[in-house]
């Protein structure tokens, strides 16, 4: 059974940093691209970043480019999102999802909440 | 980036009625268009991939059509559990983008 479990969310002041993690199980992690998607309160889904299976290729939304870094550890079956220079508008529930390179998102985690506030 | 425009923003219907949701892309995405359903407090769920293919376990009342820039998600007869928000998403080009969503609410 595929499982994706996000962690690392919390309350941070503007300008601060957080690192989110997504522990994956139940599939050949290194064979699949992985993606971060966020859902801000009262808004729609926003694609944030994706990374290829091998971890070499990455893409970012313009809203996070230069501030967020996606990475993965294929030995630990874990996806990461390093978030720096956080802003109030980064407040959201952050989901990790399997796929997103040439394929759809067939599995999603339950999300981890990030709140940016002073 | 490719902008996806969904219409209507809200659809008010009764159980048993047919729902027709639209997603229009600012440029062609060929058939790289997927549909997701999201209920309050839950993660999104894949319904339709590649414009017209139902995902595993999705009931036959859900269907997708279209190609290029115009796509439709149809729910042939609404069940109580279908009242939710629906998003289209393109994976034709980077950055990937979602539509703003259509809320299907009980009339």
Structural class of chain A: mainly beta
Report the average pLDDT across residues of chain B. 97
Q: Whole-number average pLDDT of chain A?
A: 97
Instruction: List the uncertain runs of chain A.
Output: none
Overall form of chain B: globular
What portion of the residues of chain B fall into strands of 2 or more residues?
Answer: over 45%
Instruction: Write down the oligomeric state.
Output: heterodimer
The ordered string of helix (H) and strand (E) elements of chain A is EEEEEEEEEEE
Helix content of chain B: under 10%
Biggest interface pair, counts:
A-B, 23 and 23 residues
Describe the structure.
The complex is a heterodimer of chains A (118) and B (107). With 118 residues, chain A is mostly beta strands. Chain A has strands spanning 3-7, 10-12, 18-25, 34-39, 45-51, 58-60, 68-73, 78-83, 92-98, 107-108, 112-116. The model of chain A has no long low-confidence stretch (mean pLDDT 97). Chain B has 107 residues and is mainly β. Chain B is built from no helices and eleven strands. Chain B has strands at 4-7, 10-13, 19-25, 33-38, 45-49, 53-54, 62-67, 70-75, 85-90, 97-98, 102-106. In chain B, the strands form two sheets. In chain B, strands 2, 4, 5, 6, 9, 10 and 11 form a seven-stranded mixed β-sheet that branches. A four-stranded antiparallel β-sheet of chain B has the order 1-3-8-7, with no helix packed on it. In chain B, a hairpin with a 3-residue loop joins strand 5 (45-49) and strand 6. The radius of gyration of chain B is 13 Å and the shape is globular. Chains A and B meet through strand 5 of A and strand 4, strand 5, strand 9 and strand 10 of B.
């Amino acid at each position: 059974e595929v499982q994706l479990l996000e962690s690392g969310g919390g309350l941070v002041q503007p300008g601060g940093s957080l690192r989110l993690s997504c522990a994956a199980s139940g599939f050949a992690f290194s064979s699949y691209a992985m993606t971060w998607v966020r859902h801000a309160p009262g808004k729609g889904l926003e694609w944030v970043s994706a990374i290829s299976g091998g971890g070499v290729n990455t893409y970012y939304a313009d809203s996070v480019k230069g501030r967020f870094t996606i990475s993965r550890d294929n030995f630990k079956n874990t996806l990461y999102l390093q978030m720096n220079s956080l802003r109030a508008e980064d407040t959201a529930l952050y989901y990790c999802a399997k796929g997103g390179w040439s394929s759809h998102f067939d599995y999603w985690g339950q999300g981890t909440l990030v709140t940016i506030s002073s | 980036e490719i902008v996806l425009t969904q219409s209507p923003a809200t659809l008010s219907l009764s159980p048993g009625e047919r729902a027709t949701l639209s997603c229009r892309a600012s440029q062609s995405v060929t058939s790289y268009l997927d549909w997701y359903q999201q209920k309050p407090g839950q993660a999104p769920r894949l319904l339709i991939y590649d414009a017209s293919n139902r995902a595993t376990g999705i009931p036959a009342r859900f269907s997708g059509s279209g190609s290029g820039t115009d796509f439709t998600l149809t729910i042939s007869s609404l069940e109580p559990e279908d009242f939710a928000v629906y998003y289209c998403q393109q994976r034709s080009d980077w950055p990937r983008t979602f539509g703003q969503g259509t809320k299907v609410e009980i009339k």
